[in-house]
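Notes from the 1:1 (GR / supervisor)

We went over the backlog. Supervisor wanted to see one worked example end to end before approving the batch request, so GR pasted a single chain during the call. The sequence is below; no edits were made to it. Supervisor asked that the structure be written out right there so they could see what the output format looks like.
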Amino acid sequence: MIIDPMLPEHWPEVEKIYQDGIDTDQATFETQTPTWEAWDQGHLLFPRLVAKNLIGSIIGWAALSPISKRQVYRGVAEVSIYIDVKQMGQGVGKKLLTELISHSETTGIWMLQAVTFPENEASVRLHKSLGFTMVGKRKKIAQQHGIWRDTVLLERRSGICS
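Structure output shown during the call:
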Protein backbone atom coordinates (compact mmCIF):
# COMPACT_ATOMS: atom_id res chain seq x y z
CA MET A 1 0.00 0.00 0.00
CA ILE A 2 1.14 3.52 -0.73
CA ILE A 3 -0.11 6.85 0.60
CA ASP A 4 -0.43 9.69 -1.90
CA PRO A 5 -1.89 13.19 -1.86
CA MET A 6 -5.57 13.22 -2.80
CA LEU A 7 -6.19 14.89 -6.15
CA PRO A 8 -9.51 16.03 -7.66
CA GLU A 9 -9.39 13.14 -10.12
CA HIS A 10 -9.50 10.71 -7.18
CA TRP A 11 -12.98 11.95 -6.21
CA PRO A 12 -15.02 9.17 -7.91
CA GLU A 13 -13.19 6.46 -5.93
CA VAL A 14 -13.07 8.58 -2.75
CA GLU A 15 -16.79 9.33 -3.07
CA LYS A 16 -17.65 5.62 -3.42
CA ILE A 17 -15.73 4.78 -0.23
CA TYR A 18 -17.41 7.72 1.51
CA GLN A 19 -20.88 6.57 0.39
CA ASP A 20 -20.14 3.00 1.53
CA GLY A 21 -19.26 4.44 4.95
CA ILE A 22 -22.46 6.47 4.99
CA ASP A 23 -24.44 3.33 4.14
CA THR A 24 -23.13 1.54 7.26
CA ASP A 25 -24.90 4.08 9.52
CA GLN A 26 -21.78 3.93 11.72
CA ALA A 27 -19.56 6.57 10.12
CA THR A 28 -21.50 9.83 9.92
CA PHE A 29 -24.88 11.50 10.19
CA GLU A 30 -24.62 12.42 6.50
CA THR A 31 -27.03 10.59 4.21
CA GLN A 32 -25.35 11.26 0.89
CA THR A 33 -22.01 12.45 -0.37
CA PRO A 34 -21.54 16.07 -1.37
CA THR A 35 -20.31 17.23 -4.75
CA TRP A 36 -16.55 17.46 -5.18
CA GLU A 37 -16.83 21.27 -5.03
CA ALA A 38 -18.70 21.23 -1.71
CA TRP A 39 -16.35 18.62 -0.23
CA ASP A 40 -13.31 20.58 -1.44
CA GLN A 41 -14.55 23.82 0.14
CA GLY A 42 -15.19 22.13 3.49
CA HIS A 43 -11.73 20.58 3.90
CA LEU A 44 -8.24 21.96 4.38
CA LEU A 45 -6.12 21.86 1.24
CA PHE A 46 -3.40 19.89 3.02
CA PRO A 47 -3.21 17.18 4.13
CA ARG A 48 -5.60 15.19 1.98
CA LEU A 49 -4.45 11.63 1.55
CA VAL A 50 -5.44 8.47 -0.27
CA ALA A 51 -4.24 4.93 0.34
CA LYS A 52 -3.74 2.87 -2.81
CA ASN A 53 -3.25 -0.85 -3.18
CA LEU A 54 -0.48 -2.26 -5.35
CA ILE A 55 -2.55 -1.96 -8.54
CA GLY A 56 -3.33 1.69 -7.82
CA SER A 57 -6.93 1.41 -6.64
CA ILE A 58 -7.90 3.71 -3.79
CA ILE A 59 -8.69 1.72 -0.63
CA GLY A 60 -9.04 4.57 1.85
CA TRP A 61 -8.80 8.30 2.34
CA ALA A 62 -8.23 10.84 5.08
CA ALA A 63 -8.55 14.61 5.26
CA LEU A 64 -8.95 17.45 7.73
CA SER A 65 -11.68 20.04 8.19
CA PRO A 66 -11.30 23.28 10.12
CA ILE A 67 -13.40 23.22 13.28
CA SER A 68 -14.03 26.96 13.09
CA LYS A 69 -13.42 29.94 10.82
CA ARG A 70 -12.17 31.93 13.80
CA GLN A 71 -8.43 32.66 13.60
CA VAL A 72 -7.74 31.48 17.17
CA TYR A 73 -8.70 27.93 16.11
CA ARG A 74 -6.50 27.83 12.99
CA GLY A 75 -4.44 25.00 14.50
CA VAL A 76 -7.36 22.74 15.37
CA ALA A 77 -8.85 20.40 12.78
CA GLU A 78 -11.28 17.50 12.61
CA VAL A 79 -10.26 14.17 11.12
CA SER A 80 -12.23 12.39 8.42
CA ILE A 81 -11.03 8.89 7.63
CA TYR A 82 -12.82 6.28 5.54
CA ILE A 83 -11.63 2.83 4.55
CA ASP A 84 -12.99 0.57 1.81
CA VAL A 85 -15.20 -1.93 3.64
CA LYS A 86 -13.32 -4.82 1.97
CA GLN A 87 -10.03 -3.50 3.40
CA MET A 88 -11.03 -2.97 7.02
CA GLY A 89 -8.79 -4.66 9.57
CA GLN A 90 -5.81 -4.65 7.18
CA GLY A 91 -3.90 -1.71 8.66
CA VAL A 92 -5.04 0.83 6.05
CA GLY A 93 -6.60 3.13 8.65
CA LYS A 94 -3.56 3.07 10.89
CA LYS A 95 -1.20 3.92 8.06
CA LEU A 96 -3.45 6.71 6.76
CA LEU A 97 -4.04 8.25 10.17
CA THR A 98 -0.33 8.06 11.03
CA GLU A 99 0.50 9.96 7.83
CA LEU A 100 -2.31 12.45 8.39
CA ILE A 101 -1.01 13.22 11.88
CA SER A 102 2.53 13.66 10.60
CA HIS A 103 1.49 15.96 7.77
CA SER A 104 -0.85 17.96 10.02
CA GLU A 105 2.01 18.75 12.39
CA THR A 106 4.16 20.08 9.53
CA THR A 107 1.40 22.59 8.75
CA GLY A 108 1.06 23.87 12.32
CA ILE A 109 -1.98 21.90 13.43
CA TRP A 110 -1.63 21.56 17.20
CA MET A 111 -4.79 19.60 17.92
CA LEU A 112 -6.79 17.04 16.02
CA GLN A 113 -10.26 16.00 17.00
CA ALA A 114 -12.35 13.07 15.86
CA VAL A 115 -16.06 12.55 16.36
CA THR A 116 -17.53 9.08 15.95
CA PHE A 117 -20.35 6.92 17.12
CA PRO A 118 -19.46 4.94 20.27
CA GLU A 119 -20.63 1.80 18.47
CA ASN A 120 -17.88 2.30 15.88
CA GLU A 121 -15.41 0.55 18.15
CA ALA A 122 -12.83 0.06 15.39
CA SER A 123 -12.62 3.82 14.84
CA VAL A 124 -12.36 4.52 18.57
CA ARG A 125 -9.58 1.90 18.92
CA LEU A 126 -7.72 3.26 15.90
CA HIS A 127 -7.70 6.81 17.19
CA LYS A 128 -6.73 5.77 20.72
CA SER A 129 -3.87 3.64 19.34
CA LEU A 130 -2.39 6.81 17.81
CA GLY A 131 -2.58 9.01 20.88
CA PHE A 132 -6.13 10.33 20.81
CA THR A 133 -7.90 10.48 24.15
CA MET A 134 -11.61 10.41 24.73
CA VAL A 135 -12.81 13.82 25.88
CA GLY A 136 -16.41 12.82 26.37
CA LYS A 137 -19.69 11.55 25.05
CA ARG A 138 -22.38 13.77 23.63
CA LYS A 139 -25.70 12.08 24.34
CA LYS A 140 -28.54 12.26 21.86
CA ILE A 141 -26.76 14.93 19.84
CA ALA A 142 -28.67 14.27 16.61
CA GLN A 143 -31.09 11.88 14.98
CA GLN A 144 -30.27 9.32 12.34
CA HIS A 145 -33.28 7.80 10.61
CA GLY A 146 -35.47 9.09 13.43
CA ILE A 147 -33.33 7.58 16.21
CA TRP A 148 -31.32 9.73 18.63
CA ARG A 149 -27.61 8.90 18.48
CA ASP A 150 -24.67 9.62 20.77
CA THR A 151 -21.20 10.56 19.59
CA VAL A 152 -17.84 10.43 21.29
CA LEU A 153 -15.26 13.19 20.98
CA LEU A 154 -11.59 12.24 20.86
CA GLU A 155 -8.65 14.61 20.62
CA ARG A 156 -4.91 14.44 20.10
CA ARG A 157 -2.53 17.25 20.96
CA SER A 158 0.65 17.47 18.91
CA GLY A 159 3.93 16.83 20.66
CA ILE A 160 5.64 19.06 18.09
CA CYS A 161 3.29 22.05 17.65
CA SER A 162 1.73 23.88 20.55
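Supervisor's comment: The chain has four helices and seven strands.
Batch request approved.
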